[in-house]
Amino acid sequence: MRQHHTIDSQTQLVDAIKSNDSEALKSLYTNNYYKIEALVLKNSGTKEQAKDIYQEAFISVWNNIKNDTFVPQNETALQGYLYQIAKNKWYDVLRSSQFKKTNLMNPTMTFEDKIDEEENEEEQEIYKQKLKQAMEAFKVLGSPCKELLTTFYFEKKSLRDIAEKLNIEETTARNKKYRCMEKLREMVLASKP
Amino acid sequence: MEDNSNISQELLETIERYYNGSMSKDELEKFENKLEQDNVFKSQVEDIKTLLFGIESQSLKEKLDEFHKEIPLQEQTVETSSKVRRLDFWKYATAAVIVIGLGCFWFLSGSSNERLFNNHFTPDPGLPTTMSSSDNFDFFDAMVNYKEGNYQKAIEKWEKLELKQPENDTISYFLGVAYLAKKEEASAIKYLEKTTQTSNSVFMNDANYYLGLAYLKAENTEKAIEHLEMSSSDDSKELLKKLK
User: Fold this and answer.
1) ipTM of the assembly?
2) For labeling, which of A25, A27, B27, B120 is most exposed (least CB within 10 Å)?
3) Chain B residue at shortest CA distance from A2
4) Taking CB atoms and an 8 Å cutoff, what residues of chain A touch B50?
């Protein structure tokens, strides 16, 4: 009986994360950090490294929830999954020759958890590259556009709410969003190697 | 990203609908057909999808540093746990006093139903509070109060939630049990009846058991038996034997 109930809570948590619910993301993040910090500190890492590896793992978990790679099977499945991914990532760092030589880790994000074995590795490489370009372009996008796109695409607020907040017409908000996307696309195209 | 320029506003919005799964069945079918047949279209869609996902990923990435600042300091956790231990001691001490006190009370007075109630009632152990879903935060926050024996505080919090989710059998069940733990059987009955009216509630068995106890306390033996018979738990059966 109680088992049943808690799996429901996991499903609710997963749904909340899929919709980027800020409170759900925050509580998942803050409640599971220390377990990873303890692991990293015990295994020749620093607090700073613990934070990096945890954030990387957190994004992977979020990513896998979004594309339904992860489906909770028991009451603490999600928390356990986050720990497992962070742990694997940390062991990868420990094994990497770079770590042995310089004791520094590569801070760029990896999306290897997304890789579907059957899919072509080269295609995956291209996808990763494109995603990275998109993220980097968005990172430096001018702040009015960045704010608008974050509110619409990440926080999933409606155009009407956005328009109301900015004190503009809904159609104006809609056009703004389109122009911001055009701008972002331009930046991505320009960053092409 | 390829330069398949001129993605119109309309196309962007169509891809948005595809990306967040809000297309109608009809639209989705047509859209997927086009994806299969038109390679230029397909790569346009892929690029926009990647862009949208990139926006979300980067937004999240930037949020994480904010979240990181809100991780409670570990020292605080240590402190709370020692406080909890101290509280535990007092809880046990108080419990012992209550048990002894009640023992005397039963010995000296009280109807047989009252005695049966006191002999059989132990509050539901509650749900594990390790969960961290935001929707459930308030619920589990109250659960912590409940488990500490602070029924009044738990009730106040759950009653607020109950207003928002009157159909939720979990909330009504724990409200019922919390009221019963406070010996307010009338309110307990109100909420537990509500739980048993939710068909297929996972709490059906336990709710009927506690309803039986609540009616027992209210000196309504007939109703008590009726509900105990609807519960298949061993506790119910044992209690029924004593009642008959």
Assistant:
1) 0.81
2) B27
3) B127
4) 127, 130-131, 134
